[in-house]
Specification:
Blueprint lengths: L6 H24 L2 H7 L4 H8 L2 H9 L2 E6 L1 H6 L10 E2 L11 E3 L7 E6 L5 E3 L2 E12 L5 E7 L21 H6 L12 H9 L3 H5 L4 E6 L15 H5 L2 E2 L15 E6 L4 E8 L5 E9 L7 E14 L2 E6 L10 H6 L19 H9 L3 H8 L3 E6 L7 H4 L5 H9 L2 E3 L4 H9 L4 E3 L6 E7 L6 E6 L2 E12 L2 E6 L10 H7 L4 H9 L12 E7 L1 H10 L1 H7 L5 H11 E4 L5 H11 L3 E4 L4 E12 L7 E9 L2 E12 L2 E6 L15
Parallel strand pairs: 1-7, 8-14, 15-21, 22-28
Antiparallel strand pairs: 1-2, 3-4, 4-5, 5-6, 6-7, 8-9, 10-11, 11-12, 12-13, 13-14, 15-16, 17-18, 18-19, 19-20, 20-21, 22-23, 24-25, 25-26, 26-27, 27-28
Helix pairs in contact: 2-3, 17-20, 18-19
Keywords: Membrane, Transmembrane, Transmembrane helix
Organism: Glossina fuscipes
Protein name: Fasciclin-1 isoform X6
């Protein structure tokens, strides 16, 4: 195909192109940001604010600038007075050109802070910049202007109307020193300020640059001896140097080292949101000393993201690092917030629902906790109690007491001890509920570590570990233990200890039946380490078990482990049947039958204490197979986790043909 064009046609084309470009240039240079705002339905509310602000209006008519524009949704959500000049800067900057700090046009030119996170998102203070809506123009006066649309209103630190002293653009120390003059709602900071002065740490809060400061309010010092525990190291633990952390721009997975990070003491902090979207900060003392206990302290952020000239301040409801309450006080006085606010004021504590359940069953559990000495609580979050399967039993006081007791361990069990017990292949601890154990599993490395706990058929993840108390630890978990919520298949799919059995059942299609709620299964499930042991005993067999070509053989082995009957078989029932028979018992499996004996045995749990437990051993085909986790309840049956599969070398035979 050939296109022919005469010289005349080409001339017309060039003229048309030049005229089009000229028109576009006129449009580009003649438009103003005011026009852009007026025509953008997302930000029309802020346009109205600028239109009625003479200074801002003049800036957009005559000067180069950068304008951060909140959306209509952000403007309508904000209750206070929006200060337009704090959203403006005299230097025009595209997203790429935005520097870490930008002087605003507000009185005293307080800084705006720019954060770029690992996802490529950009924030100004606590507001996310919608980069697709950023616009750059040149006015008729040849002034360059840039507009960025943001999802929140920018709020500077302002004085109270009653303040008689003029303070502009204070640093963190000036803010702390004169906090009564500023609009920080009802929060008062006098106690902490006195301790900073007493410890001569004013210079830390005066440090130039950009830092993050956590300041506890006076309410957090109602316990009379608490202020005396705020020493120089504790004050250091409230400051993150050389990082300005506005909450919305931070990932809760990011851990930040504090100024208290040296050879003898190491303290980190990170943010945490509960399911109600309330913001907390956690300090974690990794290395402590005689005055500073290791563990986590959880503090609610009462007023976040207060910009100062050398960074950002967050007001918190209690001091970090200080461990001065018992486990009982932690639950009783504050619903899990580490302060001594009245119960009426503290309706939104991180463990409010757990405390309410304890009180609904009579409150004696608190006395039991107090009498145990050292104690560890696995405390379900508020959201965990909203599950529908729990609503059905919440009125059964006896059942609920058993469930609550399943969350209590006698002794101090932090994550480090859990990790050590996993190294010894015995990640289990007894609860105060009779014959009930909790089984822990640790996955990932130190930077991405996930700790799960299983109890009564429920797998939960520890979402806030190691909240330290004077007599133990509290771990916040995301499910209520002891109330089964999933089928046998669901349990295999979600339990990190049983992934190999689940995988084998998937490719052999054996798992398909395990979701049937009309049947009652008893399933002897080898845990992952059980299959790993067969690798040493039967190397060739182990390899074939996880190959699709041998799916039939894998299925036959699985069928040997699955009992199908009108009811389930607990390990205690099987032991009693063996004792009564005084010989092997024969059980109905999916195919044929299973001939076993079940015996009880007493063992010590850990090398470092004398805790003993009554466990079970299965005798099958001259093998002694230990039951690692008995009686894991599911909605359609029960699982017994075993330490070795019922497997022989001859189970996988390949004929010459």
């Amino acid at each position: 195909m050939c296109i022919r064009s005469s010289s005349g046609d080409w001339g017309v084309f060039v003229q048309t192109l030049i005229i089009s470009c000229f028109i576009a240039l006129i449009q580009f240079t003649s438009a103003s940001l005011l026009d852009k705002l007026q025509n953008n339905y997302l930000v029309s509310d802020f346009h109205e604010l600028i239109r009625t602000d003479p200074v801002a209006n003049s800036t957009l008519q005559l000067r180069s600038c950068t304008l951060f524009v909140p959306t209509n949704a952000a403007v309508r959500k904000y209750n206070g007075t929006i200060l337009v000049s704090y959203h403006m800067a005299t230097v025009p900057m595209t997203v790429r050109q935005l520097t870490k700090t930008i002087p605003s046009d507000f009185e005293g030119n307080p800084l705006l802070y720019i954060t770029r996170n690992r996802k490529g998102e950009v924030y100004v203070n606590n507001a996310w910049i919608n980069q697709t809506e950023s616009t750059e123009i040149v006015t008729q006066e040849n002034k360059r202007q840039v507009m960025h649309v943001i999802n929140d209103v920018l709020v500077p630190l302002t004085l109270l109307p009653t303040a008689r002293t003029q303070v502009t653009n204070p640093n963190a120390w000036e803010f702390l020193q004169q906090s009564d003059l500023f609009d920080v709602q009802e929060n008062r900071l006098r106690t902490y300020r006195s301790q900073v002065t007493l410890m001569r740490k004013e210079s830390l809060y005066q440090s130039p640059g950009g830092h993050t400061f956590f300041i506890p309010v006076d309410e957090g010092f109602k316990q009379t001896t608490r202020s005396s525990l705020v020493d120089r190291k504790v004050i250091d633990g409230h400051v993150i140097l050389n990082s300005v952390l506005f909450s919305a721009a931070q990932s809760t997975e990011d851990t930040h080292t504090t100024a208290a990070f040296e050879d003898n003491i190491k303290v980190t902090v990170n943010f945490y949101y509960d399911n109600d979207k309330k913001l907390y900060v956690k300090s974690n003392t990794l290395v402590g000393d005689s005055k500073h206990s290791t563990g986590v302290v959880l503090a609610q952020v009462l007023k976040a993201n207060i910009p100062v000239s050398n960074g950002v301040v967050h007001l918190i409801h209690r001091p970090l690092m200080i461990v001065d309450t018992t486990v009982k006080q932690f639950l009783e006085k504050n619903f899990g917030c580490n302060s001594f606010q009245s119960l009426v004021d503290n309706k939104n504590g991180a463990l409010r629902r757990f405390y309410e359940v304890i009180m609904e069953i009579g409150g004696e559990v608190l006395d039991d906790i107090n009498s145990l000495g050292d104690v560890t609580i696995l405390a379900p979050s508020n959201e965990a109690w909203n599950a529908s399967n729990i609503e059905n039993i919440i009125g059964n006081r006896e059942k609920m007491r058993d469930i609550v007791n399943m969350h209590i361990i006698k002794g101090r069990v932090d994550v480090e001890k859990i990790k050590q017990s996993n190294e010894n292949m015995i990640g289990q601890f007894p609860t105060i509920h009779s014959s009930t154990f909790l089984y822990f599993n640790v996955n990932g490395d130190d930077t991405n570590e996930v700790v799960t706990v299983e109890g009564g058929g429920v797998n939960a993840t520890i979402i806030v570990p190691d909240i330290a108390q004077t007599n133990g630890f509290v771990h916040i978990i995301d499910r209520v233990l002891g109330v089964p919520y999933t089928t046998v298949l669901g349990k295999l799919e979600t339990d990190p200890m049983l992934s190999d059995t689940y995988r084998m059942g998937q490719f052999s299609s054996f798992n398909d039946q395990l979701n049937n709620t009309q049947r009652r299964f008893t399933y002897f499930v080898p845990r992952d380490r059980a299959w790993q042991k067969t690798q040493y005993d039967y190397p060739s067999v182990y390899k074939k078990l996880f190959m699709k070509d041998f799916a039939y053989h894998s299925r036959c082995i699985m069928e040997r482990h699955l009992l199908i009957a009108d009811d389930i078989y607990t390990m205690k029932t099987l032991a009693e049947m063996t004792k009564k028979q005084n010989d092997s018992i024969i059980l109905p499996t999916f195919r044929d039958s299973l001939k076993i004996k079940v015996e009880e045995e007493v063992e010590n749990l850990h090398d470092d204490d004398s805790t003993s437990w009554t466990g079970y051993v299965i005798l099958w085909n001259y093998k002694r197979i230990r039951v690692f986790r008995p009686d894991v309840e599911c909605t359609n049956g029960i699982i017994h986790v075993i330490d070795y599969p019922m497997l022989e070398k001859k189970d996988i035979v390949v004929s010459g043909g």
